[in-house]
Specification:
Length: about 350
């Protein structure tokens, strides 16, 4: 009997050390120890070999052994069921899901889209050109020869590999690219980023955004230019907006005009934004200079056209009262997220 009791102790140790992580392993435990041919049964079979006077003690040992095996089996079972079901038990499905940060449209893009959509309704198609331009498309073709003084107002950044390359100073370069490839009638709107060599401040930046417009066809007049732009500002700002045209000069338009609108900040009463005049300049415009048309083989006796260019930052400032240009490019989400739902 000594021997069997020792054997039982050893089985107990083995059972204690038995590890199960899957239901199949728990079942293997059951078969090995508690099955019909399991070790518990086998050990119990030893009862008949035990002398009568020891049967009572041995019986107790056997019962205890059996209970030990059953308890261990139950423990293993619970343990693995816990692991299997753990996915659901440990995860609280009532908790809110993980929040993925959703970006918002940049205010300049919101306004750009509005501008493009208004002109889209008038039949203007979107055209784009490269930000790295050559001298011809940015200046030469637009009637700004190399020594033209108007170039001084548009100093920019040059590319060291090629002195002919520069960062475009206005979207008028896209006018050149369109006239190069398309024949009249031409009706395009050209949004894009432009660059100037400026010291960065609240009112100036080394890059900003413009939208260019170009309309060339037979019989296009200055009246068409005025009416188109008047319609545009009314659509963008509302019917209450007033406009005025002031004579101006651009080498690529003749005659040229700058368009002011009544100040959207103070309503025309006078404030810092409109420098107490009640008016804010929003764009340059004019009739396309015959020389520019001829540069692209467009017959200036047959065709006329108008062009205009506006800064998106300025329009956005008037629409949303943003008075520091630097905010647009600082990537401060506290600023950027204020425009959610603006479109
Ligand atoms: N390109 C001019 C500028 O950047 C704006 C303009 C465009 C004026 C088209 C007239 C016609 O200042």
């Amino acid at each position: 009997m000594e021997q069997i009791v020792q054997q039982i102790e050893q089985y107990k140790q083995e059972m204690q050390a038995f590890e199960a992580t899957t239901p199949a392993q728990v079942e293997a435990f059951r078969i090995k120890y508690l099955g019909t041919k399991g070790l518990v049964k086998t050990v119990m079979g030893e009862m008949k070999n035990v002398p009568n006077e020891q049967k009572k003690v041995f019986g107790q040992i056997l019962n205890e052994f059996k209970e030990f095996a059953e308890a261990r089996y139950t423990a293993l079972k619970e343990q693995t069921e816990g692991v299997a079901a753990g996915g659901d038990q440990q995860r609280d499905i009532t908790l809110p899901g993980e929040v993925f940060p959703v970006g918002t449209r940049h205010p300049l893009n919101i306004v750009r889209n509005q501008i493009v959509s208004i002109f889209g309704r008038l039949g203007f198609a979107v055209a784009e050109g490269p930000e790295i331009e050559d001298d011809w498309h940015n200046f030469g073709a637009m009637n700004l020869p190399e020594d033209h003084p108007a170039r001084d107002m548009q100093d920019t950044f040059y590319i060291s590999q090629n002195p002919d390359w520069l960062l475009r100073t206005h979207t008028s370069s896209v006018q050149a690219r369109v006239m190069e490839t398309q024949k009249p009638p031409i009706r395009v709107i050209c949004p894009g980023r432009v660059y100037r060599n400026e010291t960065i401040s609240a009112r100036a930046h080394c890059f900003f955004h413009q939208v260019e417009g170009l309309y060339i066809d037979e019989n296009v007049s200055f009246a068409d230019l005025k009416q188109t732009l008047y319609f545009f500002v009314q659509e963008l700002f509302g019917k209450h907006v007033k406009v005025r045209f002031r004579p101006s000069y651009f080498p690529f338009t003749e005659p040229s005009a700058e368009m002011d609108i009544s100040c959207q900040i103070c309503g025309g009463d006078g404030c810092n934004i409109c420098k107490h005049t009640g008016w804010v300049e929003i764009l340059g415009s004019g009739m396309v200079h015959p020389k520019v048309l001829e540069n692209f083989g467009i017959d200036s006796n047959k065709y006329t056209g108008f062009a205009f260019g506006m800064g998106i930052e300025r329009i956005t400032q008037l629409k949303y009262q943003v008075n520091d240009l630097r905010l647009y490019s600082q990537n401060d989400v506290r600023f950027l997220k204020q425009f959610t739902g603006a479109v």
